[in-house]
Write a structure and sequence with these properties.
Bound molecules: ribulose-5-phosphate, cobalt (II) ion
CATH architecture: Alpha-Beta Barrel
CATH superfamily: Aldolase class I
Helix content: 25-40%
Catalytic activity: D-ribulose 5-phosphate = D-xylulose 5-phosphate
Family: Belongs to the ribulose-phosphate 3-epimerase family.
Radius of gyration: 16 Å
EC number: 5.1.3.1
Number of helices: 8
CATH class: Alpha Beta
Enzyme class: isomerase
Strand content: 15-25%
Pathway: Carbohydrate degradation
Oligomer: single chain
Length: 225
């Protein structure tokens, strides 16, 4: 599976989102964090903004829903023009039905796990999802320290996907920088969200290249799964 770099616009200038999107043309998808001040103690943006971003973005949208009641809302976000919609296992009443509703709209379905959430119950259900997101910080805020203690869970998911021959996107989100991306790639990640390291850079394109190269080098040095 190719490596994908997803800049998170949580770290962008919210007054100039269309202009900010022009700075990350070398990325693969743009990561959009939707927060409701209930599931996480922070509030960002909602459906109307996502719909406009989908219209103006040169890159496909990767939505990360940090909201209560994703069963109700995820299908509407899928219909808003996103390429993938990821919701949290901890918030969903019926994660499989919600993933199926997202896929029914021709959109990739992702399941996110907070740092303390186990992957065990999802291992027999990997076929129901296109993407698994292992949070590498507590969701809610950008600019936090990468939590290396989440790596065994990532490796567990990567091993299960390899055993099943699944082409699963395994995403990490939080504290990803040229310093930390290698350990995530070694443990099986192939999709990397980075907010502050990309938008905080004077040259976001160069940082995207640096992230991609560091992930590729770590992957090549790691034993094959
Ligand atoms: O989902 C998120 C926070 O809940 C963000 O996507 C994430 O924090 C990215 O920001 P940074 O790279 O600065 O950690
Ligand atoms: Co995110």
């Amino acid at each position: 599976m190719a490596l994908h770099i997803h800049p998170s616009i949580l770290a962008a200038d919210f007054a100039n989102l269309e202009r900010e999107l022009q700075r990350i043309g070398e990325a693969d998808l743009v990561h959009v964090d939707v927060m409701d001040n209930h599931f996480v103690p922070n509030l960002t943006l909602g459906l109307p903004v996502v719909e406009r971003l989908a219209e103006v973005s040169p890159l496909p949208l990767d939505l990360h829903l940090m909201i209560d009641d994703p069963d109700r809302w995820a299908p509407d976000y899928a219909a808003a023009g996103a390429a993938s919609v990821t919701f949290h296992a901890e918030a969903a009443r019926d994660a499989v039905a919600t993933a199926r509703a997202i896929r029914a709209r021709g959109v990739r379905a992702g399941l996110a796990l907070k740092p303390a959430s186990s992957a065990d119950q999802w291992l027999p259900l990997l076929d129901e999802f296109d993407l698994l997101l292992v949070m590498t910080v507590e969701p809610g805020f950008g600019g936090q320290e990468f939590m290396a203690e989440t790596m065994p869970k990532l490796a567990q998911l990567a091993d299960a996907a390899a055993r099943e021959g699944r082409d699963l996107r395994l995403q990490v989100d939080g504290g990803i920088s040229p310093r930390t991306i290698g350990i995530a790639a070694e443990n099986g990640a192939n999709s990397f969200v980075a907010g502050s390291s990309i938008f905080g850079s004077a040259d976001p394109g160069a940082t995207i290249r640096e992230l991609r190269d560091a992930a590729q080098r770590a992957l090549e040095a790691a034993p094959q799964r």
